[in-house]
Amino acid sequence: MKKQKIKTWESKKDFKEEVYLVANKVKVKIKQITIRPMTRKWASCSTTGYFSFNLELLGMDRSLGEYVILHELLHYYVPNHSKLWKSLMEAHMPDHEKRKEKLKSLN
Question: Global pTM?
């Protein structure tokens, strides 16, 4: 049986293109995207459109990066993990809980 190759991001540019694509779908205005080493988080954002993502995401399965991207972009509108935020995650990514658990298992 062949081991399935994990699909990762090709570059920072590739990752940022995905962020802009998802941002367009959820109608978030991005001022800046930064990809940098982060010790305690996968990402962070401001309500003014500044987004930072952990450099480690580039070497991970794309599906986990997609989860982090959507998760963070939705915080632009809802700054917490309330029922509203969870319902938005569910609407845009029905398998978000599965991806969240897989990401948690990497810590």
Answer: 0.92
Q: Say how far apart CA 26 and CA 29 lie, in whole Å.
A: 9
**Structural domain tally of the chain?**
1
Cβ atoms 56, 104 nearer than 8 A: no
Residue 105 CA: distances (Å) to CA of 7, 30, 50, 99, 101: 18, 30, 28, 10, 6
* Residue-wise pLDDT tens digits, 14-45: 999 999 999 999 999 999 999 999 999 999 99
Q: Is residue 68 part of a domain?
A: yes
Q: What is the dihedral of CA 7, 13, 18, 24, to 10 degrees?
A: -170
Task: Indicate the SS3 state at residue 18.
Answer: helix
Q: Where are the alpha helices (DSSP H) in 29-82?
A: 62-74
Locate 7 and state its tokens: 């699909």
- Give yes or no for a contact between 68 and 9, defined as CB atoms under 8 angstroms apart: no
> For residues 99 and 36, what is the distance between their CA atoms, to the nearest angstrom?
22
CATH number of 43's domain: 3.30.2010.10
